[in-house]
Amino acid sequence: MTRYADIPKPIRSGLVVVNPDTGTPQRIIILQFNPDTLERSLAPQTAGGQNAEGGGTGGGDRNEALRLKGPAEETWKFTAEIDATDQLEVAAPDGIHPQLAVLEMLVQPTTAQLREAARQTQKGTIEITPIEMPLTLFTWGSKRVMPVRLTELSINESAFDVNLNPIRASLSIGLKVLSVSDLPAGHRGADLYMAHLAQKERLAAAARGGSLGALGLAGRDTMTLGRG
After folding, report:
1. Are 70 and 179 in contact (CB under 8 A)?
2. SS (H, E, C) 174-220
3. Which parts of the sequence are annotated with region: Disordered (predicted)?
4. Cβ neighbours for 23, distance < 8 A, ≥ 6 positions apart
5. What's the mean per-residue pLDDT of the chain?
């Protein structure tokens, strides 16, 4: 007889908004369904006059061809689904408005922040510091926890209740991983990025290496490749 209690519960992906000074989670956003696919892109920060795709521009220093200026610029894209008919905890009067609003506030300043900025302007402050948002982490299992900034949030609402509250939506979400090139030294997000990169290094070290023979290069070694 199958014991359903023994079936492991799948881990959910999501976003965690944390206080960058204390590291205390301020809000945990769990995606209702794990996305079916992830689109990831890594663009190396190359030196020597090369573009992100690795093509030379013709004016670079040849001595810089294999140098990197910093961590690769990493972006993620995926589609998230929210469906009120599949989650009983959604309050009927609001549909999925609360879930959508939580995500939208990741790219919006609060009314309190806007009022404070307006107050500083009215006082004649010469330079207003741009509003700083909380640190956001994207989590995809224990091996992928990284600081991010939302670069895209496109919402397609596809069903509504009798009060025109949305009850089903598909969201296209774009993220940019924030590296040590994006954050100041000592910032908690920079430390989290270094932990994320160290995880990649551990995984790469665990990968099984190939052999030159499999490439049809038997009898050569790495010191003589390309020299006859």
Report:
1. yes
2. EEEECCCCCCCCCCHHHHHHHHHHHHHHHHHHHCCCCCCHHHCCCCC
3. 41-65
4. 188
5. 85
Minimal CA–CA distance to 34: which of 124, 175, 140, 188? Answer: 140
- What value does the mean pLDDT take over residues 163-191? 94
Coil, strand or helix: which one is 84? helix
Largest CA distance in the chain: 77
**Residue 176 CB: number of other CB atoms within 10 A?**
17
How far is the C-alpha of 43 from the C-alpha of 51, rounded, in Å?
9
pLDDT digits (tens, 9 = 90+) for 50-109: 554 545 455 567 788 888 899 999 999 999 999 988 755 555 688 999 999 999 999 998
Structure tokens at 23: 């590291």
- Strand order through the sheet with 14-18: 25-30, 14-18, 135-139, 145-160, 166-177, 68-83, 39-46
- What is the rounded CA–CA span in Å between residue 218 and residue 186? 48
CA 137 to chain centre: 7
Structure tokens at 221: 């070694």
Which amino acid is it at 63?
N
Strand partners, 78: 173
Do residues 95 and 165 touch, judged by C-beta distance below 8 A? yes
Nearest to 181 by CA among 71, 77, 103, 106: 71
At residue 225, the pLDDT reads 63
The stretch 198-203 carries a mean pLDDT of 95
d(CA 154, CA 162): 24
